[in-house]
Amino acid sequence: RDPEEKLKRPTPVINIETRKDVMSLELQKFCEGSPIALIHGLTTQLRMDLSLFSTKHMMEYFPMEQIEIRDQLKMDPDVNVTVNGEPTWECTSEKKWSTIGDYGAYQISHFKASLKEDSEKVRAEKNNKYGGDSQAKRRRTQNAIPDETRQFQVIKFGTNIDLSDDVKYKRQLTELAKMPPFCRIIAGCNLLSHLGHTVLGMNSAQMYMKVPGNRTTAHVENNCLASVNINVGPGDCEWFGVPYEYWSAVNELCTKEGVNFLKNPWWPNFQQLINEGIPVYRFTQKAGDLVWVGPGCIHWVQATGYCNNVAWNVGPISYNQLAMAAHQYEWNKLQKYTSLVPMQHLFWQLAKNVRVTQPRVYMLIRGMLIRSLCYAKFVATWAESKLHMSIMSQPKKQGDGALYCKDCLVEVWNVIFARELKEKFQVYCAHCVLKHKDENGIHVIQQIPFPELVTIYNDFQLHMINKPPVLA
Ligand code: LMR
Prior knowledge:
Layout lengths: L2 H5 E2 L3 E3 L3 H4 L2 H8 L3 E5 L1 H4 L9 H7 L4 E8 L21 E5 H30 L4 H10 L3 H5 L2 E9 L7 H7 L29 E5 L4 E5 L6 E9 L2 E6 L4 H10 L13 H6 L4 E6 L4 E4 L4 E6 L3 E8 L4 H17 L7 H11 L5 H27 L5 E3 L21 E7 L2 E5 L13 E5 L3 H10 L13
Parallel strand pairs: 1-11, 2-3, 15-18
Antiparallel strand pairs: 3-12, 4-5, 4-6, 6-7, 7-14, 8-13, 9-12, 9-14, 10-11, 10-13, 16-17, 16-18
Helix pairs in contact: 5-6, 13-14, 14-15
The structure holds (2S)-2-hydroxybutanedioic acid.
């Protein structure tokens, strides 16, 4: 194949034909070995009732639920231009709010209008072919929308519907729980199930409602976690994916194109990536298809039909996933960007809950624990000796989320500088508290005592499955 063709990577696709295939180790290995993968037949074999996620069902049962709306300009997936027609990677849209009922009505009326337009086109073509009546032709020409305007039709994207309420969405979540464990929202083998609290859209599902042209701009999942996305249909979605190894090349291109990889919405140009030697996966996700997005994979999605999608994150407990998540955590700190996965908290949870059998995973977790323990001890000693503050002990309540610095957005773990304001806490890290230390009401709080952490650290051991034979 010529070099350009080689960069257009063939999609890793798997057809699931039996229920046994769904639960097989091969499927898990196939997914975990692919940057991105398309899985046909899985939802059918599991007899999942995807109609519970249809617009009809959602409008009937949850018409008043909130939905985030993005106004977008309808363009071909290979194109992203400004309103003046100049190529750009920037893809901004204002955030608005609506209800499922209103968005559903919009999606349906858009669908009906497009059906009408299609049948008019067919009729016009027939008329053209057979001569047609010139009066009707004239009428059509007069009413036709000029090309430039047509190119920029404004369409609404209904995004981030929160399905975290397990009472309200019991039926939907029961369907999703049929997934094989490595794809489940809640599973012992999923890092995110060890957090002990909900991170919306990560260890809880979110839904997307789309009309043709709606775009999810290019991104890597929070902290490079893997994700699972099901197209409920009826229409298709077109997917693009770039493996994690090309992150830095794509990041450089983003800078050149004037967008910030992490913080701005952007739509890369497919051909430009290929020309730069960056391989891209490109494929169609049909109704019922599941897309596995591997750890760190850069991806972007455009609806080519009318469809709803449901998605969530998963974290395989593998060296690759943990190393990427930890690396992204540090990069986010440098970029002053919140890591939705509080990695320090997570590593301590893993040490408490998980039986680790892989030496590399064990060493990585242990390394993170010792660094986090040393840092917390250093901050506590510094607060007492240099800031002359006395540390108050206040254990974390079950289900409490992670804490983030109000100024620089980093996770503040275990030794926390906080001020109570109108029954809410304002939290600061050890760096930012220096700007506030003379203000009234700032305390330093410790959530887990050091002796308890030392015990967790010492009790965390490697459980070798195949121990080397003992020589007599
Ligand atoms: C979508 O379906 O549009 C998005 O959720 C894509 C994604 O990143 O899962």
